[in-house]
Automatic annotation (TrEMBL):
Pathway: Phospholipid metabolism; CDP-diacylglycerol biosynthesis; CDP-diacylglycerol from sn-glycerol 3-phosphate: step 3/3; Lipid metabolism. It comes from the Bacteria. Belongs to the CDS family. PANTHER family: PHOSPHATIDATE CYTIDYLYLTRANSFERASE. Keywords: Cell membrane, Lipid biosynthesis, Lipid metabolism, Membrane, Nucleotidyltransferase, Phospholipid biosynthesis, Phospholipid metabolism, Transferase, Transmembrane, Transmembrane helix. Its main location: membrane. It catalyses: a 1,2-diacyl-sn-glycero-3-phosphate + CTP + H(+) = a CDP-1,2-diacyl-sn-glycerol + diphosphate. This is Phosphatidate cytidylyltransferase.
Amino acid sequence: MDKNLIQRLFSGAIYGLLIFLCTTDYGAKFINSLSPGLVKQEQLYYGLITFFVAVGAYESVKIMKFDSVLYRWLVLPLIALVYYKFTTRFFGHGFYFNYNLSEILALALIVIACITLFRFASELYYDEGKLIFTVIYVSLPFGFALGLPKFYEDTFTWEVFMLFVLIWSSDSFAYFTGRMFGKHKMAPKISPKKTWEGFAGGVFFTLILGYFIEQKFPELRGNWMVVGFLVSVFAPIGDLVESQLKRTFGVKDSGNILPGHGGVLDRLDSFIIAAPVVYLYFILEKLF
């Protein structure tokens, strides 16, 4: 078997296991079986998301090639401040939804950052633009991700893990459908391998998977056919956003933390866009 394939399979398995242990209640159960009372599941989840934020910030700085040493060193503390202030409502008192001005502003900023990347990329050649984009792109989406699970007493629900399952499935279904039937390019200059046929296949099969999740996991909030549809539409957009970012700055991979798979931003590009969208859906579903 090809050495690179073995490397990809091994690192992919480690990544999948890490996601499973930190986004379901099995992580804390396993650790506490070795040392009772050592961790709570939400602590593992906080740690995972915070790790993604830290590595994502580092990778974004590398991709965008900051010219100023001052701005380069300013990124991480500024991201930490925004991430903490935006997500502090999730710490210490479980998870809840409070549709307020800060969340509306955060969602709007993510949209504006993506539009800037595609339509006004020249603004990102200045360190000020790079700094603002990095703070928005890295800290806010992961901040929204902290609000996805329901946590109460000793229960930690599986919304985030199922979101990952849908993202992985959407990517896989789109890839295989595109390989078999793809003829019409979706964004040839940004991601030449993506096709509209693949996109349609990803939507169709992810909807089916969402239906099975809805039937098997009734304790999850929201309708998971709707979540499946949102993921199948917005996960490819997340992939295009990161592809455009790398294309703008002439970079192949965001990093090499996962041998054979690239960096954190490479693996989580779909999640970065899908998580805020699903969070918004959960808020609207609660309101109406």
